[in-house]
Write the structure tokens for this entry.
Amino acid sequence: VTERALRRALQTLAERHGPQGWWPVHCERKSFRTPCDARHRRGYHPGEFDLPRTRRGRWEIVTGAVLTQNTAWSNVELALAALRGARLFSPEALLACELGVLRQLVRPAGYFNQKSRYLQAVAQWFIETDRALLAAPLAEQTVIAARPVLLAVRGVGPETADSILLYAYGLPTFVIDAYTRRVLGGLGLVEPNASYERLRQQLQTALREATPEETVRAWQEDHALLVQEAKQLRRAAPPCRIGERV
DNA sequence: CGCCAGGTGGGAT
DNA sequence: ATCCCACATGGC
């Protein structure tokens, strides 16, 4: 019942906003590398979102997922550019970097004392896990196995973990964020204050597709559409309260 | 000048 | 199990 309404809402957003092509990855825009995994060759239409084909592409998504915590993406881009400028393209280089230096590079993304430490923690995870995750089957079981490990990393909460699994590795998990709650809650389709895990299960159940490949594509696009809708809503409807200056 | 942005960890209840 | 708070920059 609510499943029908959720699908209809996401379909409407798809028609309204078109393909979103998330996650934005800087370093692969002009990549000529060939796919390194069969997962990348099947089920993904040209011109739409592709998984990163390189280790560096995956690492950039991991980095962005941490840096964007409660922070505008424009600020994240400044920090990513600073990291690139310092030649910190890899988790190894980032781990070797002195914390004081790293702090200054991360600074434009805000919370730089925390996030610089978070990045080093997640770099260690990446070094230990990236290869295995690439080889893992494209199935929800893989998420069930990998997610707790990722959540144990300092600085990685549920949204960051799901963003990494869904967008860097193409694994089927649904990202819940403030926009998801705002848009779907505003439509009365979900309880905005429900726990993260409850919302994730609810949306996964409602929006699962026939195959894992289709499911991943759908969930990547669904989340991107919710963000786009929320941003447009905020611009289009400036609150005008009584007593407020005009 | 004030508010807010694609959360998270840690401590109190 | 849930709630509350500190954390910080750049854009509008």
